[in-house]
Amino acid sequence: MKPWNIEICDVTLRDGEQTPGVSFTRDEKMAIALMLDEIGVEVIEAGFPVVSPAEKECVAAIARSGLDARVCCLARALRPDIEAALDCDVDIVSIFIATSDLHIRHKYRRPREEVLEDALNMVEFASDHGVQVRFAAEDASRTDPAFLVEMYNRGAECGADLLSFADTVGYLTPLEIHAVVSKILAEAPHPLCIHCHDDLGFAAANTITAAAAGAFQLHTTVNGIGERAGNAALEQVLVALRMKGGIDRYDLSRLQEISRLVAQVSGIYPDQVRPIVGENAFAHESGIHIAAILEDPSTYESIPPELVGGERRFVLGKHTGKRALEHIANAYGFNLSDEQARWVLGQIKQRSEGKCSVTREVLCEFLRQAKEGIPQ
Ligand SMILES: CC(=O)SCCNC(=O)CCNC(=O)[C@H](O)C(C)(C)COP(=O)(O)OP(=O)(O)OC[C@H]1O[C@@H](n2cnc3c(N)ncnc32)[C@H](O)[C@@H]1OP(=O)(O)O
Ligand SMILES: O=C(O)CCC(=O)C(=O)O
């Protein structure tokens, strides 16, 4: 399979930090940037310099820290924003304008042609300063496609190296994003970035679908943090790229580690059932599943836990079967007769149905009782 032609721009430090209530310190941003770099992410969006003097310092520190990744930052289509970005010595300035009529009406209160002309001047201004320029369409998914194509073609003429399509409010489904990305690339054949939000729960799916349709730069955040329901999750996108896009250059074995780091410093912990990084992502209770996993884990795991730095976990409860119990009991040094196993299974199921968990201690107590003689 020919690997997809993509790169990752991780925006945890900018859009991820826009998660309500989240603010990273300079050391935290640096630690996340370092780990993203070690994973092999090609572009790190370090922040939005005009937000505050401290933010500007963080962006500059990351840009000057000698990472392999290119460092990017956000700027409105305003000269002071772009000057602040240039001060930070970033490799890429991402200049954005909202492009939907809805946003333009409420935020800029000017005709869209005027907004575009002014923004193009800013693209030229940044490009003339020798920095790479991304020209991003905010709310692209609710924008007149003809206007987007005009913006992208004219942006490229003015020196933009990358054009960005943002599904700012997580509005599209995978089929819709495939159609719109294909249309844009046919009419504006330039490197396209895709920036998806998760309001409908499709951010990672839309990102991968856009890549399949030819999008080049894929935006992600660790654990999918970000505005409202968040962004496309780095871990989901990278694993999907490995499994479906023929891309094996990222160090996926660090994914659980970076997930823990970002959870700790953001205070936003992934759901138990979240793919790849959730506590249950590699946990099994069902007897039928565990019996098969003991023969071959791929029967019930499409992602090997060790691929992402995780571990398989067997849980005892209402759904435990005899094979699973025997396996776990053996690991604790107990060999059970059929009768003993049946009795212990009954105890486990009863306890679980009473909404009590079957911890290692509880199991060992059942096992000891069974060995000493099944209570009548
Ligand atoms: C989709 C996204 O994620 S976009 C990024 C969103 N991120 C943030 O907002 C980061 C945090 N924001 C901030 O710290 C502040 O909002 C700042 C520093 C950026 C701006 O603060 P203020 O100057 O106080 O402006 P305020 O936030 O009230 O309003 C935004 C202004 O930016 C203008 N603006 C918004 N987007 C753009 C743009 N892409 N290009 C030019 N101007 C823009 C708005 O029209 C508005 O201008 P107005 O005050 O003349 O009406
Ligand atoms: O497209 C981009 O690069 C950024 C836009 C963005 O953050 C958004 O619209 O949510």
UniProtKB/TrEMBL annotation:
CDD domains: DRE_TIM_IPMS (cd07940)
InterPro entries the record matches: AIPM/Hcit_synth_CS (IPR002034), Aldolase_TIM (IPR013785), LeuA/HCS_post-cat (IPR054691), PYR_CT (IPR000891)
Catalyzed reactions: acetyl-CoA + 2-oxoglutarate + H2O = (2R)-homocitrate + CoA + H(+)
EC number per UniProt: 2.3.3.13
One MF term in the entry's GO annotations: homocitrate synthase activity
GO biological process, one term: carboxylic acid metabolic process
Domain Pyruvate carboxyltransferase: 6-256
Keyword Protein transport among record annotations: no
Coiled-coil residue windows: none
Protein name in UniProt: 2-isopropylmalate synthase
Species, as recorded: Methanoculleus bourgensis (strain ATCC 43281 / DSM 3045 / OCM 15 / MS2) (Methanogenium bourgense)
